[in-house]
Amino acid sequence: MVTKCTIKSVFLLLVFILFDLTEAINPTPQTTAFRNALKGANLRCKVTQHNVQLIDVVCDLLSHELDKLFRMIQRNNIHELKVKKNRYGRKRINLYPLPPFYCEIIKLESFQIVEISDYAFVNVEGLTELYLEHLRLTQLPLFGYLPDLEVLSLSGNPLTHLTNHFDLQHLEPMLSSPRIFTGVELLERIDLYNTDVKITAYDMVDLPRLIKIAPPIAAPRGFVLDYGFRSKADQAFINDLRERAKRQY
């Protein structure tokens, strides 16, 4: 038998659900203005309200439109920015430093990006996940200070090495210089599907939190998923490298 209390509880639950859906659908005035600005610039983007503070942006762009998008996007607060290359865009481009804005997740996919400038993402506040997938990168930039970055995907790039200090001969002269991952100490996961990268212990000198490498074949010998190096000797070796890097940099 259905009681009045049960009916009241169900009614209140439906009210809360409806309120949440309304909040998720209704854009703020700032979101509406940004959406209209993108439309006025003829950029094929969908802007939705993620929550009261943040928006999600999904775009399908030609290569030369990417720079225009980043000029317009500054000072916005974004949860996820996903930009895919339009199938007609074949122009090869460089990616230069992005303007200041807040964004937790950036996904760039299928662009003919052949080079990314050093420190290209340091003006992006709150960046926790960065996906640079199916681009044309043969080497990585200096990422610089990205204190929140936890996930990096480089899948589908023609990369052969993760860093330019993949052995002791290359690392020694760079111990006193900025390296590709100097300042990215919270990185936990790297995806390297469809690349020719085989990570070495020397690559990991600036990545003390890295415990997830995919696919597993890209990981160094003795590296265990969700743990790190199995051998105490291997762990001591990488710790020694890190101490030397700290002393000399």
UniProtKB/TrEMBL annotation:
> Is Ribosomal protein found in the keyword set?
no
Output this protein's name. Leucine-rich repeat domain-containing protein
Q: Which domain of life is it from?
A: Eukaryota
Signal peptide location in the record? 1-24
What residue ranges are annotated as transmembrane? none
Give the record's keywords alphabetically. Answer: Signal
Provide the species name. Answer: Panagrellus redivivus
Q: Which InterPro entries does this chain map to?
A: Leu-rich_rpt (IPR001611), LRR_dom_sf (IPR032675)
